[in-house]
Amino acid sequence: MQLKGKTALITGASSGIGEATARHLAKAGAHVVLAARRKERLARLAKRIQDETDVQVLTVATDVTKREQMEALVRQAEEELGSVDILVNNAGVMLLSFLEKDKVDEWEQMVDVNIKGVLFGLHAVLPGMLKRRDGHIINISSVAGHEVFPSSSVYSATKYAVRALSMGMEKELARSGVRVTNISPGAVATELTHHITDTDVTDRFAKQSLTPLESEDIARSIVYAVTQPENVNVNEVIVRPTNRRS
Ligand SMILES: NC(=O)c1ccc[n+]([C@@H]2O[C@H](COP(=O)([O-])OP(=O)(O)OC[C@H]3O[C@@H](n4cnc5c(N)ncnc54)[C@H](OP(=O)(O)O)[C@@H]3O)[C@@H](O)[C@H]2O)c1
């Protein structure tokens, strides 16, 4: 119960890594604010957390690409639970495609969710964290934010951006009481790949023999980062499956 009395806000909490992270943070004692667009999935998760723990749970249907919705989300969390002590900037989309397919709407969606979503999250929580001289921001990048492979150019560009933002935040906020952790997962079994429309990419995924990580594996690394002593700032965590090829 190391996080007793803290409040954690998780974006993209309706599935995958966000859902597992919310459950693990709640089990560590934090009140949780669950944000994503699919209300019914958030309600189902809220019930599960309430059955498993006695922390407070708030669900707020939120589109992270809308600045005013992110501001309203944090305002509601602060009003109902007092403060947002931990922000997990997790919402993301991975619409892999080859550049020659010219899927410009999907490029725009990735930029909006993966980059603007993280910036709007930062914008909404930072004033409160600076005032309290206490807070922790977790940004979910990817191993695709460390290397680029065919079909990942735009997705990787957004995840490199997340990592660059994490590095900047960590340096600028180091003495402010606000800690920053960039988490870069390798392949994790979630719904992330379900939205890919480029069939050349989905065919390649179908032939892949890799056994991916589970969302819980990433959730545990997030709990690790946010439960360190106050003088410890875990800035970068890379978590890959053991059986990858390179
Ligand atoms: N799975 C992997 O292999 C892997 C590897 C490296 C990094 N990551 C990163 O991990 C993060 C979580 O992905 P996941 O693997 O858990 O995939 P996922 O199960 O598809 O979860 C993505 C989450 O993002 C939310 N989301 C998407 N667009 C949104 C929007 N406009 N506003 C609010 N929420 C939005 C979705 O909720 P709604 O649809 O309900 O809004 C969902 O909860 C992403 O940033 C992803 O890039 C994943």
UniProtKB/TrEMBL annotation:
Key words, A-Z: Oxidoreductase
Occurrences of domain Ketoreductase (ranges): 6-186
Pfam family, one: adh_short
Domain of life from the UniProt record: Bacteria
Gene Ontology molecular function: oxidoreductase activity, acting on the CH-OH group of donors, NAD or NADP as acceptor
Family the entry assigns: Belongs to the short-chain dehydrogenases/reductases (SDR) family.
Protein name as catalogued: NADP-dependent 3-hydroxy acid dehydrogenase YdfG
Organism field: Melghirimyces thermohalophilus
